[in-house]
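Re: your question from the hallway

Yes, I did run it. Sequences:
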Amino acid sequence: MKGKICIVTGSNSGIGKETALALVELNATVVMVVRNLERGHNALDYILQEVEDPHIELMQCDVASRSSIEKFASEFESKFDSLHVLVNNAGAVFNKRQMTEDGFERTLAVDYLGPILLTRELLPLLKSSAPSRVVNLCSGLYKSGQVILDDLQSEKKYSSQKVYRNAKLLLLMHTYSLAKKLEGSGVAVNAVLPGFVATNLGKNSGSRMQGLMFGMMKPFQLTPKEGAETSVYVASSKEVDGLSGKCFSKKEVVTTTDISNDGHLQQQLWIKTMEMLGINDY
Ligand SMILES: NC(=O)c1ccc[n+]([C@@H]2O[C@H](COP(=O)([O-])OP(=O)(O)OC[C@H]3O[C@@H](n4cnc5c(N)ncnc54)[C@H](OP(=O)(O)O)[C@@H]3O)[C@@H](O)[C@H]2O)c1
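Structure:
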């Protein structure tokens, strides 16, 4: 990965932190993208202790905020003239329905709309740096997710787990759609199911019960390092060269549900999403 420039969002914690570390160990230049610089510095210190003379940088971006994404993308472009790997890793789940400054339900904003907006902003650079890769962190929980086209914002009904599952299904479907659109561009777009991993996910959801539950399950979970293995593989492995529009689990391509592969639904979702974001296309 020497000479390759990689972005990992949400890299101050869990899977993202270990993904950043592993890519640095492979000699890539890594930009750790975090929403909180103090937490980011702690994670950077951890990586600096593990690797001698790493090519690594810390930058700030809140993926739930369009203006923050735009500001980050423009700062990134003023520092770097290429981008080979974008790992859309940041993710969150919220116990209570919250809205972002842009008027979107927050889980949808972090887990679905944020990766789309960030990828869109950085697409010209990904194209000019091709071959390049976008890696979207989905979740096996997508299997029980739904595409509720007339209530993507969960205005009618909100359940944190359902909204999270739905957002991950939407991201998986968007991954497939974008891969089709980018055929021939040299930009590969793939999804990753990392497994059940002991991280901070769910602990900050606002639900004490959920936090306790996650704590109790820790012995059955993968470590963050193990959880990062498939992301790192999809971001860096030669074996993945030329593969796009795939979903990976345990470093292997997996077949996903019929709903996720429904081309008509993918198209409807694409149109609805562009409408929501007020953008023509990308
Ligand atoms: N853990 C699992 O079992 C599991 C399973 C399937 C999929 N995943 C997915 O894996 C990815 C990584 O999650 P994790 O398990 O490593 O959880 P984590 O330890 O909670 O890490 C999530 C990261 O995302 C960041 N983040 C949250 N909201 C953000 C925002 N608005 N802007 C920028 N960054 C934001 C967090 O930053 P803060 O520290 O500032 O909150 C944190 O760095 C997520 O997409 C998650 O959905 C996890």
